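Weekly structure sync - notes
Attendees: PM, LS, DV (DV joined late)
Agenda: review two folding runs queued last week.

Item 1: First target. Sequence and structure tokens pasted below for the record.
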Amino acid sequence: MSLRSQAFPEVQDLVLRFWAVVDETLDTAGATLFTADGALAIESFRAEGTEELTRYFAARRALSAERQRRTRHLCTNLRRLPGDGMRVAATITVFSGSGASPLPLEAPSSLADFTFDCVETPDGWRFRDVRGALVFVGADTPDLKAAAEAARGVPA
């Protein structure tokens, strides 16, 4: 399957908008970046479909506000993976902290490898599947079990 020359920059933009949503620097509903049956999985955490993804992003935003937690996810080494369609991989370095800005800069709280399986829809590129695997974790790495419960609608 041949892809348009603009496909990779458009997918790159989708990936970077995803991290801006996660970091709350872009006021877009995170679930809108996914197909209706799209999934997000990080280690034991999984949110699938618009309903679970919407709950996950809302719970993440609420918890960040409650704890005055800020994050910045740096997306590096973005590259297209071989095969049909548009599948890309990236390394994500996470900085985090709590309190008023500016926060003291400390070592990254985690580093993970991500893959993004993307499909072109009439509304533009969307994620069919996003998968993350932690490589390094620090003291401020989030509780993925709590994230999974939030996605399923289990009260905190």
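Item 2: Second target, run right after the first with the same settings.
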Amino acid sequence: MKKTWIMLTSVVVFCLTIAILVAFLVNRYDDYKAHMYLIPDGYVGWVEVEYDQPGYPELKQEKSALVYEIPPSGKLITSSPNASGPVTYYYVLADGTRKSIPLGENAMVHHFGTSSSSTLHGDGTTVHTPQTVKFFVGTTEQLDEAQRSKP
């Protein structure tokens, strides 16, 4: 009887441990999303995404990826928060099909970065700059030209 009780207790503890671990991993997975940037075909220039902006639409979701439909201006504003995760880039052709944007040796995406800030003024007010992701789409030559022509 004592052996049965010990075995039953061990099984219950094991099952509870597994359940807690699964719950933790599922919760962490929800915070870790893939990011899919859909950029108009032929677009060359800076892409900028501002997060957490009330009154703007949330990012769409396609399977487990957040979808960034970049407008022709290159600037997207969303009420969604930023999240960690892998990133993919696609040109969206006129017929709606997607063409992968190269990375690596022939990269067409450069200087991916995130920024935000807060400034405390002497009167006690604080001005927050929203969290922003910014990157350049184009060849290295086009990036060099864009950087030379910055105001």
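Discussion on item 2: Helices lie at 2-31, 140-148.
Action: LS to circulate a short write-up before next sync.
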